[in-house]
Amino acid sequence: GENVEQHPSTLSVQEGDSAVIKCTYSDSASNYFPWYKQELGKGPQLIIDIRSNVGEKKDQRIAVTLNKTAKHFSLHITETQPEDSAVYFCAGGGGGADGLTFGKGTHLIIQP
Amino acid sequence: DAGVIQSPRHEVTEMGQEVTLRCKPISGHDYLFWYRQTMMRGLELLIYFNNNVPIDDSGMPEDRFSAKMPNASFSTLKIQPSEPRDSAVYFCASRPTGGNTQYFGPGTRLTVL
Q: Lesser CB count within 10 Å: N end or C end of chain A?
């Protein structure tokens, strides 16, 4: 089955700086890679996703890149703001699988 | 759209008691997933259903856990008897056929004393 590794487990950045979270996956059949944001006391919410036929996708301050050859994908948040503080999860799935395999999460802390 | 609805939001019970968690998926979604979240193990998939039929329950920790989906609008996750190590946040998620995105509910925080 799929195995998703996520790094770092904790990331602290100054407000206004950029944050990068990285994930690797093991199953070359996976073709769907979402990123979820989880705020305290809430369920994970999708913030952006990418499919394997695309190398990069942007949505305002958030971007995701995918390297299929190396089997890794990254989340980039620019001009970080206090409301970006949360736990972020990457996941891999698709390619015939019904479910998603999640990384262990990254606790992003935005320092004022 | 009301999103995925879970109840209760918090449950505190004593070891040995039966616990039932409830989930209402988004209308029209044919897939329903149950996850458990802990600090140590992260988000673990317990079981998922397609069109009310259990497809994969390999993540269910042991026979004390059971899940049902009697109709397209309702699912339950039952733990009997509960143990302190079952303490976690349990999430339900749903997605439509043909889509990959899963939509999560707010979760149920279970504490077993």
A: C
Residues of A within 8 A of B42 (CB-CB) are: 89, 102-105
What's the angle, vertex CA A43, arms to CA B108 and CA A108, rounded to 5?
130
Contact B81, B17 (CB under 8 A): yes
- Do B43 and A44 count as a contact with CB atoms less than 8 A apart? yes
pLDDT, tens only, A25-80: 999 999 999 999 999 999 999 999 999 888 999 999 999 999 999 999 999 999 99
Q: Do residues A14 and A109 lie in contact, with contact meaning Cβ atoms separated by under 8 Å?
A: no
The terminus-to-terminus CA distance of chain B in angstroms comes to: 36
**Cα–Cα distance, B100 to B94 (Å, whole number):** 10
Of the candidates A102, A111, A109, A93, the residue with the CA atom closest to the CA atom of residue A36: A102
Please provide residue A104's backbone torsions phi and psi, each rounded to the nearest 5 degrees: -80, -10
Of B50, B102, B105, the CB nearest to A100: B102
Specify the amino acid at residue A97. Answer: A
- How many residues in chain B? 113
Q: How far is B42 from chain A (nearest CA, A)?
A: 5
